[in-house]
Amino acid sequence: xxxxxxxxxxxxxxxxxxxxxxxxxxxxxxxxxxxxxxxxxxxxxxxxxxxxxxxxxxxxxxxxxxxxxxxxxxxxxxxxxxxxxxxxxxxxxxxxxxxxxxxxxxxxxxxxxxxxxxxxxxxxxxxxxxxxxxxxxxxxxxxxxxxxxxxxxxxxxxxxxxxxxxxxxxxxxxxxxxxxxxxxxxxxxxxxxxxxxxxxxxxxxxxxxxxxxxxxxxxxxxxxxxxxxxxxxxxxxxxxxxxxxxxxxxxxxxxxxxxxxxxxxx
Length: 266
Fold this sequence. Notes:
- The protein has helices spanning about 20-35, 50-60, 95-105, 125-135, 165-175, 195-205, 240-250, 255-260; strands spanning about 1-10, 40-45, 45, 65-70, 85-90, 110-115, 120, 140-145, 150-155, 180-185, 190, 215-220, 220-225, 235-240, 265.
- It contains eight helices and 15 strands.
- The strands form five sheets. Strands 5-4-1-6-9-8-10 form a seven-stranded mixed β-sheet, with helices on both faces.
- The chain is globular and about 65 Å long.
- It is of the alpha/beta class.
- The model is unreliable at about 15-35 and about 240-265 (pLDDT under 50).
- The chain folds into two domains: about 1-190, Spore Coat Polysaccharide Biosynthesis Protein SpsA, Chain A, CATH 3.90.550; about 215-265, no CATH class.
């Protein structure tokens, strides 16, 4: 049967257990730029939200629903790429909306759905996760990595299915407490501090994960957007403008746009 997907964006900022004054200023700047949630921050040319949806579309889900908290709905970033049949719903209670969407997916031929919150960059093998879920005849499967549970679930869509322990009800009522049963072996980077974004970008350039800047790689380590023309005789010089970078992304972390304005062809 077909598979649907549900992406949940809540109104949450960075976490920091004992921030210093400089750290607090950095957190405030980053969260304000992102419209109140790290999911909206630019990550090598696209938001973490868009990267998450794109991975779902690559897995050939039939439908994708985006549930957004009212406090951040007006700040959703513009998507650079077409998002197919993506639909959006604004809801104070995202899990009540999830239950409604699951039932609508069932009526359109989906037996289960991927439910995810973009609180981490996850390169899980979704096909393997779905096989694990179906073979185990589970109502709900939650993913985890070596650091614990992830905000990634597979949920059955059939509203009339009876499962011992009412696992779907439990997952919808207390999603953060639902136990994980599937281990993600692929790359995962949780996003709870600005440093996590910096490390993710570093890992991307060191090819520790499949993430890369928008556009195409014209030369080793050099990525250019569609409308950027490079001659074979051009010499590229990197000049980091900290003020431009902090204005468009995390403090001290340049986005691709900042990079483009700081590269000179000679």
